[in-house]
Amino acid sequence: MRKLRTPRHGRQPELLASAISLLLAVLIPGTSRADEAQLERGRYLVQISGCSDCHTPGYFLGQPDHTRFLGGSEVGFEIPGLGIFYGPNLTPDASGLGNWTTDQIVAAIRTGATPEGRGLVPVMPWPNLSALSDEDAYAIAAYLQSLDPVANEVPGPVAPGEPAPSFVMRVVPPGK
């Protein structure tokens, strides 16, 4: 199987995740090759989908913190009239997806809504991800649930006109 390379990022989180899934398969009875294949597929899909861009601390500041891979961003997107949105923690910590079921993660990926019914930020490409096969959607959820938990409560969303708690990238509409 061909390994993906992540340019200019020192430690490679995808290699670490692969090593962890292999180690789990050896140490945890009942973990099968099918489980390993599902986690590897989920890792691959998260990698090519660019999830770490918006969900890994430091990414938008040019220094992604791979020790907190997918642990939530400290840089928000400001969308005029909607507010400021921060990429949430996608790890299985309570501050992230730790209280979500696999089915809830898959539903959020496909419908763009949290289990409570709150819509995901408009830049989240859930309309594209809604076309994932069941196999691929569940592989992503399984991979996210296999990550090391990262305790990181991200800010937001922040209502329009409210002060931002940290860095913000602003989406500016074209002039009239």
Fold and architecture overview:
36% of the residues lie in helices and 6% in strands. It has helices at residues 13-27, 33-49, 51-55, 102-111, 126-129, 134-146; strands at residues 76-79, 83-86, 168-170. A 3-stranded mixed sheet has the order 2-1-3, with no helix packed on it. A hairpin with a 3-residue loop joins strand 1 and strand 2 (83-86). The longest helix is centred in the first third of the chain and has 17 residues, at 33-49. The radius of gyration is 17 Å and the shape is globular. The protein starts with 12 loop residues before the first helix and ends in a 6-residue tail after the last strand.
Question: How would you sum up the global shape?
Answer: globular
Q: In order across it, which strands form the biggest sheet?
A: 2-1-3
Largest beta-sheet characterization? 3 strands, mixed
The H/E string reads: HHHEEHHHE
First and last CA, distance: 51 Å
What amount of the residues lies in strands?
Answer: 5-15%
Oligomer: single chain
**Integer-rounded radius of gyration:** 17 Å
Mean pLDDT: 85
The count of strands amounts to 3
How many domain units? 1
Which class best fits the helix and strand makeup? mainly alpha
Number of helices: 6
Q: Which parts are unreliable, with pLDDT below 50 for 5 consecutive residues or more? A: 1-11, 20-27
Helix share, percent: 25-40%
